[in-house]
Write a structure and sequence with these properties.
alpha+beta, 8 helices, 7 strands, transmembrane helix, Bact_2-comp_sensor_kinase, Signal transduction histidine kinase internal region domain-containing protein, transmembrane, HATPase_C_sf, Heat Shock Protein 90, five-stranded mixed beta sheet
Length: 333
Amino acid sequence: MIKKSLKHAILINIGAFLLVFILETLSNLFFRDNFDTSFSFYVHGLNYTVMIMGFIWLNHFVLIPYFLDKKRYFAYGILLIGSMLIFSYLRTKNWSGTSKIFFFLLYTTGAGMAVFFLRRNMIIQKKNEEKEKLQKEMELNYLKEQVNPHFLFNSLNSIYSLSRQQSPETSDVVMQLSELMRYQLESSKKDTVLLKEELEFIENYLLIEEKRLSKRCTIEFLIKGDVLELSIAPMLLIPFVENAVKHGAQSTNEQSTIDISITIKNTTLYVCVVNSKPNMVAASKREGMGLENVRRRLNLLYPNSHVLEIDDMEKLYRVNLSIDLTASILKNS
């Protein structure tokens, strides 16, 4: 990276040197009465170019970093003007003729500094963007890693519950859970997965929970619209489903319901998760690590392109989520 930046800086300075030399040569050719294309003519132009570029390099590599950037403005101004006068005198060898060269250097310095600070600000902005992107990636990876043990813990609870019931379906459920875990591990290595695969994962998870909860919970899972080739961040929706199971049917022996509807319109995904609330948890705080995690992931992955509404009512708990799946930062990175 350093070698690349150094090479880029060298090429820019060589280009600037050649540009000044060409402009000086053309100026002498077109604005002089007598055309002179002898060797001395080009040597004169080369000497002038060396003087101009020497002053620019002195300003950029010495005066700006050691005085202007360190807020030593008075010293910078004195040294800049003094350097201009010295370069002007070396050019004319006569103090009376330095004014024209001095003002030309002043103009050149102003233009050069404008380009210098513009380029430096662009480099700083690019570095800040790369730093911000890296920080987002690190946070997303951390949040994604949190989902894995959370889902595993809930899955083990499901197996434990079935084993206590001595259900003949326990072995089948273990196999189904292993498939879910395989998908989870594979998807965790990706930035996005197909929406179709993510919805199949949720559907299979609900089938397992339906077996575990037996007849005391009615689960409805409905998908409307064409998923096409849409993609979504993996394990983004499952916390809402787990939350509905954990704080709804799992926390009571009463009859309960879970209704999940998925609607796709063009590239926008609409998710609605509604579950009944048992009396004993009606006043409890519902939002735990899972929902906090998914809130943060949504803000990072789909900034300004999602709407999340959670209604904690007396008898029902409803989550409404809409996401523009084409607006993910992962598609622009």
